[in-house]
Request: fold
Amino acid sequence: MQALAGTAMIGELAWIWFRDPDALARRVRCDDLSPLLDAHALGRGVLVLTPHLGGFEVTAPWVARCWPSTIIYRPSRRPGLERLLREARNRRGLTAAPATLAGVRAPLRALRRGEVVGLLPDQVPGEGEGVWAPFLGAPAYTMTLPQRLAQSSGAAVVLLWAERLAFGRGWSVRLERFEGDPTPQAVNAAMERLIRQAPRQYLWGYNRYKRPAGAPPLPGKRAAP
Reply:
């Protein structure tokens, strides 16, 4: 499963990153936009949570065709790759903000303006930015950012993922409203449920269970002396 999802993702990245958004949208279908429409009708910003599942790179430019959007991403340590990522992800209606203290201010301002902010909540956060929470049967260091953004902005929260269709036919976007407070535990449970819908399309090669430098020890374990 790991190889299949990773190979499919690599094969589609260049096409997604450098394709005109309108051409991209023609390969995306969505049978029910009501979770996004209803969230916008509340007059607040919308925080969209997407796991590393299916065509997750296609979701932000697809949403940004209709609503101004900001995505939060982890900057690359390689300058050349970082420039490529910024070029690919900053496009019409879409702004990419690095997951740094300064970078997170931009998404918060966007939510307060009533815009959309996209986030991959199954990405391992840095020191001081997460807590240990269950994820697929094991403790995983999990970001607290969704909860902080929602509480600070009053944003509605929506779950979104794009199923990769067979034979290169594009993607089918699925949306649902997230109910309740997006705590790390609740967000992990929601991500698990989405992943179980298409486990072969999850990016299992991502090291979800690593312990970032400076993070507290795993629950029940003592820190090394």
